[in-house]
Amino acid sequence: MARSLVIYLASIVVLGGVWLATVIGVAADTDARVADVGTLPRSSPESQGVSSQAIRAFVHAADQQIAVMNSVMLVRHGRVIAEGWWAPYDAATRHELYSLSKSFTSMAVGMAIAEGKLSVDDEVLKFFPESAPAEPSRNLQSMRVRDLLCMSTGHQTEPRLPASDQPWVKTFLTHDVPHKPGAHFMYNTPATYMLSAIVQKQTGEKVLDYLRPRLFDPLGIDDPNWGSCPSGITLGGYGLNVRTEDIARFGQLCLQQGQWNGKQLLPAEWVSQATSRQVSNGSNPKSDWDQGYGFQFWRCRHDCFRGDGAFGQYCIVMPKQHAVLAITSGVKDMEAVLNLVWEKLLPAFKDEALPEDAAAEKQLRTALAALVLPVPKGEATAKNSAAVDGRRYEIKANDLGLESIAMESSGPPGQVTLVTRSNGKEQRLVCGHEQWIKGRWSWGNQREQAVAASGAWTDPETFTARIYQVETPFSLTVRMKFAERDVTVESEWNVGFGPNTRLALKGSQAVRQ
User: Fold this and answer.
1) DSSP secondary structure code for residue 504 in this structure
2) Bridge partner list, 418
3) Which of 106, 312, 405, 486 could potentially form a cystine with 331 if both were Cys, beta carbons 3.0 to 4.6 Å apart?
4) Which distant-in-sequence residues (6+ apart) come within 8 Å of 26 by Cβ?
5) What single DSSP character describes residue 144?
6) Hey, where are the domains in the chain?
């Protein structure tokens, strides 16, 4: 469980029809005035009708009940009233959004439509005649841009684009379409990729470059990072990396019906359509994944909507409450995070300002500033410390590409450096004791990236290191169990798209380095 030192959280709602336009229109008028400063201003919770005590109760519950929170930012009436990062995560570091990226792609589509580049009723094949099958099925011929937006393409299974040895557009168009497009919902990340491909085809720019002057720059989203496929098309359905406040600004823009800084960045009608229920995706009134789907946005309970991404990346917009909640996290149970929002936070919004409460606000700020993810609990040294210090252990052949591992205890007491060699390349990772130390590192055949690490002897024969990849929701726990001249290396991820636990690797002591 995540803990703070003083004592780590994706989906969409739509409010349909005239009622949506009316309610959000009021919010836009109210919130646009405070957004004119060009960024999100800060204020006390009470001045925006929320008690500091209620927010602290929500943060405390998230800290205790949600396994790995990364960050949280709450905005009301266009003002940030609470923000916190669970160390080693911080405000300045971009975070992988996964499918929350889809909502940004939706806005690129809306802008391109407003510029006359395409229509939601255009047939998909119209844009890629060179990639179409020789004899396209009737269902494929009838697939429209709207079907891509609503995840109702008629597919039974998702096309496996990254596994393809041909251009991804061709792989998508040659995938079987057994159902009539528009007839049923099936979550389909390749459909969002196709939206990105269409925008690029029609505008001559990647979605990332197309959105930069139209969306990212006006919102103050600096240097967004968004990957591309081998053909140079922005991924669309995932891969966008921005900061927590950038998520909040995007949500505020949606709340304000596309208006920002006195300018209409997005067509208000598009924002309303995109965040409204366009297709049914279930009937369970208690599930935030059964409330309907818009144009790359989820509907939520309580007349809210959201963009969300794997393992708990959220942009939750609450129109009635004039509020936006941005969350990054690394969780398996995404519904649990939303349940906590509805239970602890939603009732806290009041229509009028509350009396200022300096003591409660100070307690909230103190709690937010002290948030930290738990380090491995154990000793700085153990009976095996001297015996293994500086010794290299050669690892038997494995699919990680890990060739050897060693521990060095140079530096402050308890600080350990893991020295790994993978695929012929040596990597060094400094692990703090009862603290996080940041660096750059790769595990096995992964790419090198920003990390933070802490470690301890969790029993007399076992050194445990926990490594957070701080631009992602992922953390890796590595356990090195020593027995005479041998070591067993176990590794486990907090979340993942496949098995989280790897088979134990065996190694034997080589020569002193």
Assistant:
1) P
2) 407, 429
3) 312
4) none
5) B
6) 3-93+248-372, 94-242, 385-512
Which candidate, 185, 342, 414, places its Cα nearest to that of 277?
185
Is the Cα torsion angle 299, 303, 305, 308 positive or negative in sign? Answer: negative
Q: Identify which of 279, 233, 224 has the alpha carbon closest to the alpha carbon of residue 100.
A: 224
CATH homologous superfamily, domain 385-512: Calycin beta-barrel core domain (2.40.128.20)
For tokens 């929350």, name the residue.
Answer: 100
Q: What is the pLDDT along the chain (513 residues), one digit of tens a residue?
A: 444 333 322 333 322 222 222 222 323 333 433 333 347 999 999 999 999 999 999 999 999 999 999 999 999 999 999 999 999 999 999 999 999 999 999 999 999 999 999 999 999 999 999 999 999 999 999 999 999 999 999 999 999 999 888 999 999 999 999 999 999 999 999 999 999 999 999 999 999 999 999 999 999 999 999 999 999 999 999 999 999 999 999 999 999 999 999 999 999 999 999 999 999 999 999 999 999 999 999 999 999 999 999 999 999 999 999 999 999 999 999 999 999 999 999 999 999 999 999 999 999 999 999 999 999 999 999 988 888 999 999 999 999 999 999 999 978 888 999 999 998 999 999 999 999 999 999 999 899 999 999 999 999 999 999 999 999 999 999 999 999 899 999 999 999 998 888 889 999 998 654
- Sheet hosting strand 425-431, strand order edge to edge: 425-431, 416-422, 402-408, 391-395, 505-512, 486-493, 475-483, 462-468, 449-459, 437-441
Residue in 512, 79, 112, 20 with CA at minimum distance from that of residue 324: 79
**CA–CA gap between residue 235 and residue 241 (Å, rounded):** 12
Contact 477, 466 (CB under 8 A): yes
Say which CATH superfamily domain 94-242 falls into: DD-peptidase/beta-lactamase superfamily (3.40.710.10)
DSSP letters for 64-123: HHSS-EEEEEEEETTEEEEEEE-BT--TTS-EE-GGGHHHHHHHHHHHHHHTTS--TTSB
Can you tell me the distance from the alpha carbon of 79 to that of 245, in angstroms, rounded to the nearest whole number?
A: 11
The phi, psi pair for 248, rounded to 5°, reads: -65, -40
In the chain the first and final C-alpha atoms are separated, in Å, by: 38
Rounded to an integer, what distance in angstroms lies between the CA atom of residue 126 and that of residue 196? 15
Do the domains 3-93+248-372 and 94-242 sit in the same CATH topology, yes or no?
A: yes
Indicate the CATH number for domain 3-93+248-372: 3.40.710
